[in-house]
């Protein structure tokens, strides 16, 4: 049986593929240090676990829920946005989804006709382009300059714009670069999108994971006009160490959200009930553990970053948020006698048992993505191995 053309074109998620490969080698007994996957290494906080157990015991978790999510969780999302950012929405402007990833997927299905274009700044999160293509849209990739902290400018957007442009994605703090857009930059981009009547897709999933005094501004808070033009994508995975629970959400224009609900009603029916009850506690319960995890990431960043920066040939600017480093290793791989970053990453795994992710999945052939969502001992050992690998290759 021949598979569909759109499925044939699909690239599987490089991050999940790399993480799976590292895991498989580990299972064979190899001593692999994996800095691949983008998820907190902490356990879900106790109060959230308890809320889930309670929902199971009292029977709440047994049944289908409304497709858009349980009313308590939609209300919790509204309260969360109001209290944290002063953003006012109605519950009918919210949808709970199977992770933020599925919020994005449903959104593209809801807004794109064949050939509609979505502007995606590069480097990008691996799934944006593939999801746009699955909705028969056309991703328009805009290369952001490293000298501009990997951030897109209005001039570049102007150049990428066409009569088919439907939306632009802003992911701040960014996966993979960790950079954060300033209020001024967001104002310019937001005003431009309003003027052109383009939807702003704000992937705010790392908004609570910012370090060393840097600040995150949700683009929806800039002005009322920009808020109306924006769909916020967020979820509990990264902030609350809940990747396995699969709860995300989208907030914004009621018609778009309702369309997403209709699509979800024919695809997933509803996000897992027990996870929704847990997510209510995550958003409304005590937030001390969130701060503890943030501080732990910050400490790792501050200790790990200088070690990576000191590796031969590496060029990098210190990230402001998320939990990744995205160093330029063009020079490093040249020192090692490589022309291709993916080959270098492959050999690093084979020969030094350190798993990183090639920048190619994020739109760059000069970078690697390194996740520091793992303990400092592993990070330090990984740096030692990478340094030794470079030294061996340099001499070879
Ligand atoms: C992890 C991630 C998501 C998806 O998270 P879910 O686990 O599906 O909620 C979305 N966007 C970015 C940039 C991410 O890194």
From TrEMBL:
Pfam families recorded: Aminotran_1_2
Cofactor(s), names only, from the UniProt record: pyridoxal 5'-phosphate
Secretion signal, residue range per the UniProt entry: none
All residue ranges annotated as the Aminotransferase class I/classII large domain in the record: 31-386
Keyword Ligase: no
Keyword Transferase: yes
PROSITE patterns: AA_TRANSFER_CLASS_1
EC numbers: 2.6.1.-
Swiss-Prot/TrEMBL keywords: Aminotransferase, Pyridoxal phosphate, Transferase
Enzyme class: transferase
Family, per entry: Belongs to the class-I pyridoxal-phosphate-dependent aminotransferase family.
Name by which UniProt lists this protein: Aminotransferase
Organism: Enterococcus phoeniculicola ATCC BAA-412
